[in-house]
């Protein structure tokens, strides 16, 4: 897909963060936009920015954890805008806590949005993309879908699953000329960092915020990946290097993971002591 002019990009999680930045990047390339999020006010602001840039957008307020709402989204988008040329799943939440402290309802809520929300959009839209014979599915996973991050077990579980889903679907979809890209960024300056549920680790999360990359840089990488039908986007450069270490020097990667776990354990221990 070399030219996005007049193409339709459907983006979930489009009210903020990576979803919004990428939607605007597609807008700047001339694409029409179907903006999807649970945050109606954020969608209104996103659509206003698209219009300010001279683009076209329609907004859809949807809880991606609800398959019936996603089914209705499919019907409305198809009737009002057509079949997406780019289907981008970017909605997500995070929990930072020791696994023994995480309530089951947090597991269920996170997996429902971060994994099943992606499954629902693919389920309802992919037949139309197959029938047309082209398009690109973009699933925003995480660096936490390439190598484990301690004390983020639900998030890591969902993102490893998204990477696996993307890689398997890529092999199936190629016969219909539909590409699939898994996006695996490190820390990005988005509301998911500040908005994540945390049990301990306050100081650690603040440190992550200081090294986070901009969503605009990632958005440009995503647009380029769709052009080139890349299988995986590891971003920024340090994530690509860490991924190489894991693949080619697994014992070194294991030692690094243990070191990170020890540091985070003591942070968790100090936070727990301060609260008690």
Structure description:
This protein has 276 residues and is of the alpha/beta class. The chain has one domain (8-275): Rossmann fold. The protein has helices at 17-28, 40-52, 67-80, 104-132, 153-173, 191-195, 202-211, 215-228, 237-248, 250-275; strands spanning 8-12, 32-37, 57-61, 86-89, 95-96, 135-140, 178-185, 197-198, 232-235. A seven-stranded parallel sheet has the order 3-2-1-4-6-7-9, sandwiched between helices. Helix 1 packs across helix 8 (215-228) and helix 4 packs parallel to helix 5 (153-173). The longest helix has 29 residues, at 104-132.
State the CATH superfamily name. NAD(P)-binding Rossmann-like Domain
* Amino- and carboxy-terminal Cα gap: 56 Å
Radius of gyration: 19 Å
> Proportion of β residues?
15-25%
Q: Structural class given helices, strands, pairing?
A: alpha/beta
Give helix and strand order, one letter per element, not per position: EHEHEHEEHEHEHEHHEHH
Biggest sheet details: 7 strands, parallel
Which range best describes the helical content: under 10%, 10-25%, 25-40%, 40-55%, 55-70% or over 70%? 55-70%
CATH architecture: 3-Layer(aba) Sandwich
**Mean pLDDT, all residues:** 88
> What is the CATH class name?
Alpha Beta
Number of extended strands: 9
Shape: globular
Task: Describe the secondary-structure layout.
Elements (H helix, E strand, L loop, with lengths): L7 E5 L4 H12 L3 E6 L2 H13 L4 E5 L5 H14 L5 E4 L5 E2 L7 H29 L2 E6 L12 H21 L4 E8 L5 H5 L1 E2 L3 H10 L3 H14 L3 E4 L1 H12 L1 H26 L1
Parallel strand pairs: 1-2, 1-4, 2-3, 4-6, 5-8, 6-7, 7-9
């Amino acid at each position: 897909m070399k030219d996005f002019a007049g193409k339709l990009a459907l983006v979930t999680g489009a009210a903020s963060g990576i979803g919004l930045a990428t939607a605007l990047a597609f807008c700047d390339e001339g694409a029409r936009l179907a903006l999807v999020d649970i945050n109606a006010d954020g969608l209104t602001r996103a659509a206003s920015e698209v219009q300010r840039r001279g683009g076209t957008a329609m907004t859809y307020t949807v809880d991606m954890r609800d398959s019936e709402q996603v089914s209705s989204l499919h019907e409305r988008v198809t009737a009002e805008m057509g079949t997406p040329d780019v289907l981008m799943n970017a909605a997500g939440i995070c929990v930072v806590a020791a696994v023994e402290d995480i309530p089951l309802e947090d597991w269920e809520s996170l997996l429902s949005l971060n994994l099943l929300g992606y499954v629902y959009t693919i389920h309802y839209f992919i037949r139309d993309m197959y029938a047309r014979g082209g398009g690109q599915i973009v699933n925003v996973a995480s660096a936490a879908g390439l190598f484990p991050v301690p004390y983020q077990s639900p998030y890591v579980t969902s993102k490893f699953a998204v990477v696996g889903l993307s890689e398997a679907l890529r092999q199936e979809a190629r016969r219909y000329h539909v590409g699939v890209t898994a996006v695996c960024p490190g820390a990005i300056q988005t509301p998911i960092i500040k908005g994540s549920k945390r049990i301990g680790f306050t100081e650690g999360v603040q440190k992550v915020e200081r090294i986070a990359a901009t969503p605009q840089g990632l958005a440009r990488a995503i647009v380029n990946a769709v052009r080139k039908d890349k299988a995986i986007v590891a971003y920024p450069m340090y994530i690509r290097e860490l991924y190489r270490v894991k693949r080619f020097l697994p014992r070194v990667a294991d030692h690094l993971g243990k070191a990170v776990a020890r540091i985070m354990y003591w942070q968790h221990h100090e936070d727990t002591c301060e609260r008690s």
